[in-house]
User: What shape does this take?
Amino acid sequence: MSRPVPAVFGSVFHAEMPVIAFQNGAWQPVEWQSSQDLTLAPGAHALHYGSECFEGLKAFRQADGKIVMFRPTANIARMQQSADILHLPKPEAEAFLDALIELVKRAADEIPDAPAALYLRPTLIGTDPIIGKAGAPSDTALLYILASPVGDYFKVGSPVKILVETENIRCAPHMGRVKCGGNYASAMPWVLKAKAEYGASQVLFCPNGDVQETGASNFILINGNELITKPLTDEFLHGVTRDSVLTVAKDLGYKVTERNFTVSELKAAIENGAEAVLTGTAAVISPVTSFIFEGQEVEVKSQERGNALRKAITDIQFGLAEDKYGWLVEVC
Ligand SMILES: *Cc1c(COP(=O)(O)O)cnc(C)c1O
Assistant: This one.
């Protein structure tokens, strides 16, 4: 049976979604609702004061027909951390995982074959209908999960041109670890400017020359046999893919170094033949094809190691390589 892959990423949703409400100081039992609309008070806290965070993870149909999710407990832990920093009620891990599993089971027939997948988008919003709470957290919240069949986000051979930005920051430094819409709104002017002025696909944020991440993905420099990436700080999002790539790379014999590095070090390495990749759930790994440093484009000569690392991860996801780290959760 062939299942359709929607042309636009994230534009088609499974008909229903699990919704878990936080009311009267407690998480309530899950309810299943239509994913077509959501009833909210126009004064809802999330709509006015940004009490919103989200997650992104995937479920896959493997060659033998089994359906698996990739590292859902890492995403649950990260949403708990985002909730903590945003002063939203912290989702309960067990009910959250149960809702994910049930959703993937219900949507199983809609999951396209490899290399496509089912993208899952848990969303947590503050719902107090009180616009006077500008400086106070929401006492009520909703956690709901969208499921969206998606094609392969990654297109072999398509250019990944990165604008290196040293003046503007992606988001307020203390918010970097939070996966929230507010940070995307904050990065939007620089992302649009990079597209319009340079045809760049992403902006690499490097405040004062410190290489951090792009608007939606982490950044790893592959210099010969060494992977170099920024150590985990509050300023950027701690990606599950970043962690997976570093783990797999170590096993493949790479040296993995988590340390700060500068734009001038990056530029010198690229000019000397180093590779660089972006990591994130949607595309897994996107090898960079060129950088723009102060208006000057520098080609990245090779994407070979990045592509091999990408395959090492997707082989685990699609059941073509052993899941030796216990990353897969079997759904059905
Ligand atoms: C989601 C996200 C990433 C990638 O995280 P993964 O867990 O690998 O998908 C990186 N940076 C930002 C800003 C993000 O929002």
Remarks:
- The chain has two domains: 16-150, 161-317.
